[in-house]
Amino acid sequence: MDRSMLQRAEALQDELTAIRRDIHMHPELSFQERRTGALIAEMLRTLGVQVQTGIAKTGVIGRLIGDAQGPVVALRSDMDALPIVEANDVSYKSVVDGVMHACGHDGHIAMLLGAAKLLAEEAIAGRLPGEARFVFQPSEESSDEEGKSGARRMVEEGAMEGVAVIFGHHVNNSMPVGRISLAAGSVSASSDAFYATITGRGCHAAYPHTGLDPVMLTAQAINAIQGFVARRIDPRQSGVISVTMVHAGTATNIVPDAVEIAGTIRALSHETRQALFSGLRQSLSIVETLGGKVDLRIRDGYPPNMNDPVATESLHRTIASLLGANAFEKSEPAMGAEDFSFYSQVVPSSFYGLGAASDGEPYGNPHTPRFNINERCLPIGSAILAQAALDWLQAHHSG
């Protein structure tokens, strides 16, 4: 194993921990990451990195150019926190009421800044055969008023122009530090929302025959939706439609005019995603067959996150060289979503899970008040990102 990059990263442990804790203490919600972005930009500039700010509202892009004729490798971190009251009793507890880094993005930032420092040293030594692009995006957790997340905004505003490949990661509290999950193909599911209004005809509940009960229509529609998923989707192709909200009525003796339902649509492939869209429309058409009306709106969310085979093979070799061939856990695709998928739509990409638990004992689950990470994962993440970029540039440099 070539551990030199890892050893250099381990020497940054205290520095990376300090960065992570500073950001953890000052969390900012989606598209509000102004302090975070300013801190990132300042640190990148001290490394000699060219900096663009205000990308996708509050995002930051850093460009470290070695050989201008070489390829471009992008590395990504998200920046946003969550509207959660922190319950951890730590010296670096959030000082912002009702907001905390409950998903590890503070660690992601510190790790990418560490990778930038390691690669800046390579550039100074004349060993960077291309460009390393550092993509610090806002709002992985949420979308703006137009329904667009940070990654989607970054792509639309040119963050991936000229990029040959992009690498990223997410901390994983179900694995101990030093363990990695990585596989080609589906990594995480698409995530779309639907909203439907099912309209009948209201009446007195004692005389249902004088109206058209939308609650009964809705029950039939929900059964049809679940039947479609169970019987029309290939069971080898993961997909789910969950009805999570049902709202209707004002009194026990009144049949309402309409019922509003909403839920989520998830799939691990683009084909299954489209099949679920079609199946939802077909299932809801039973309402019209029974005499009612239905108004359906599907709000596009995140597409499936797909790891490119070539990029993933390169990343696998890099990680094995740093941590050993036995560092990998069995990797299963998740039905959760990650907006890194917007990058995978436009350039080859690979995204891996980074162990962040303590000796096999997990910290709190993501999106909960006691979420935390084992900070020993920070230099490992920095080393992997830096070495992954360097290995790709060296392998694909035409000179």
Features of the shown structure:
8-stranded mixed beta sheet, 399 residues, alpha/beta, elongated, Aminopeptidase, Alpha-Beta Plaits, 11 helices
What does the model show?
The protein is α/β, with parallel strands linked by helices and 399 residues long. It has two domains: 4-189 and 305-396, Aminopeptidase (3-Layer(aba) Sandwich), CATH 3.40.630.10; 193-302, Alpha-Beta Plaits (2-Layer Sandwich). Helices cover 34% and strands 26% of the residues. It has eleven helices and 16 strands. The strands form four sheets. It has an eight-stranded mixed sheet with strand order 1-2-4-3-5-16-6-15, sandwiched between helices. A hairpin with a 3-residue loop joins strand 1 and strand 2. The model has no long low-confidence stretch (mean pLDDT 96).
Summary of the model, kept short:
The protein is an alpha/beta fold and about 400 residues long.
User: What number of structural domains do the residues give?
Assistant: 2
Major pleated sheet: 8 strands, mixed
Radius of gyration: 24 Å
pLDDT averaged residue by residue: 96
Q: According to CATH, what is the topology of the largest domain?
A: Aminopeptidase
Structural class by secondary-structure content:
alpha/beta
Number of strands: 16
Q: Which residues sit in consecutive blocks of at least 5 with pLDDT less than 50? A: none
Q: Which CATH class of the largest domain?
A: Alpha Beta
SSE blueprint:
Blueprint: H1 4-10, H2 13-25, H3 34-46, E1 50-55, E2 59-65, E3 72-78, H4 105-124, E4 131-137, H5 150-156, E5 165-176, E6 180-181, E7 185-188, E8 191-199, E9 203-204, H6 214-232, E10 239-248, E11 254-255, E12 258-267, H7 270-284, H8 286-289, E13 293-302, E14 305-307, H9 309-323, E15 328-329, H10 341-344, E16 349-357, H11 377-396
Parallel strand pairs: 3-4, 3-5, 5-16, 6-15
Antiparallel strand pairs: 1-2, 2-4, 6-16, 7-14, 8-12, 8-13, 9-11, 10-12
